[in-house]
Design a protein that fits this description.
Elements (H helix, E strand, L loop, with lengths): L1 E10 L4 E8 L5 E8 L3 E8 L2 E9 L4 E5 L2 E2 L9 H13 L2 E12 L8 E11 L13 E6 H9 L6 H14 L1
Parallel strand pairs: 4-9
Antiparallel strand pairs: 1-2, 2-3, 4-5, 4-7, 5-6, 5-10, 8-9
């Protein structure tokens, strides 16, 4: 498949949407809508046989959702993937990681977006102040034992896709 033309159809500080005209291997033509967003980090803050989770209102789904701390750089900020993970962990939970280990990089939704995310395991945690953005003002943070996390996954109370993918990488890492 090759792209024959591309045009931007929408942009704001957080997202860009483009429409690509494509030609497939068989010669047929089509259109792809592509959503571009910055890569992000998901952090699994682990201690005492459990994890620190955050919960906030998620406008697109119209409800509050539990997830692992995650996010991207604020508009105009930048740094390494590890610096982003450390920044998001501190911003959302107030925790600082003495040890941060990269578990992998995943595609968020390759049929829709080139956005990727890095997954990090944070251990040797120490508390500190949060630095939440205005959009995170309603965020809550809580420690959840791993058995409780598994129960939440089973009964549909923990449904965030990137968080579930990150947890899967941790389970694979453990063997």
């Amino acid at each position: 498949m090759r792209t024959t033309s591309s045009r931007e159809v929408y942009r704001n500080p957080w997202i860009r949407v483009r429409e690509d005209e494509v030609e497939r291997a068989d010669g047929s033509r089509g259109v792809y809508g592509v959503v571009e967003k910055p890569h992000f980090a998901v952090v699994l803050p682990a201690e005492r046989d459990g994890f620190w989770l955050v919960e906030q209102f998620r406008h697109p789904v119209g409800r509050r959702a539990w997830e692992f701390p995650q996010g991207t750089w604020s508009h105009g900020a930048s740094g390494t993937a590890e610096e982003l993970a450390r920044a998001e962990l501190a911003e959302e939970t107030g925790l600082r990681a003495g040890s941060l280990r990269h578990l992998g990089r995943l595609d968020l939704a390759p049929g829709l977006s080139p956005q990727e995310f890095d997954v990090w395991l944070a251990t040797d945690l120490t508390p500190g102040p949060t630095a939440r953005e205005a959009t995170e003002a309603d965020m809550r943070c809580a420690f959840v034992p791993e058995a409780e996390l598994r129960a939440r996954v089973r009964d549909g109370r923990f449904t965030d896709g990137p968080s579930l993918a990150a947890y899967s990488l941790l389970l694979l890492d453990r063997g």
